[in-house]
Amino acid sequence: MCYFCERHITPDELTSSNGIKFHSSCLKCEHCLDKISVTTLHFVDPKTAAEYGARRKPGYPNCSSGFYCQFHFREFFTARSTSLYPKNWLDKDSDFIDSPSSTTLDTSDTPNSDEGE
Description:
The protein has three helices and four strands; from the N terminus they run E-E-E-H-E-H-H. The chain is α+β, with helices and mostly antiparallel strands and about 120 residues long. Strands 1-2 form a two-stranded antiparallel sheet. A hairpin with a 2-residue loop joins strand 1 (about 15) and strand 2 (about 20-25). The radius of gyration is 23 Å and the shape is elongated.
């Protein structure tokens, strides 16, 4: 059965990647639904999709596992992606919120007007 169209695949039409069988003519990006070739496809497994989904910024689509074109794979699942918070963003935010000293102003680093004279 084809992963995309759920129809029977004859041996001459069979293409597979990452253990998933499909017609090569049915291969499409999960996000934009454009057809992609076997040489340019990127597969995202459910674990990776969940990890990146937890770091996704508001306003960006929540991407599922599956096949992606090169553009959308780079956009949603690489370290350079602008749609993601940094890897430790939740830890840094929770430290900032829980810290009682974060609400006080530290004036020890302010320059003195007397130093330049």
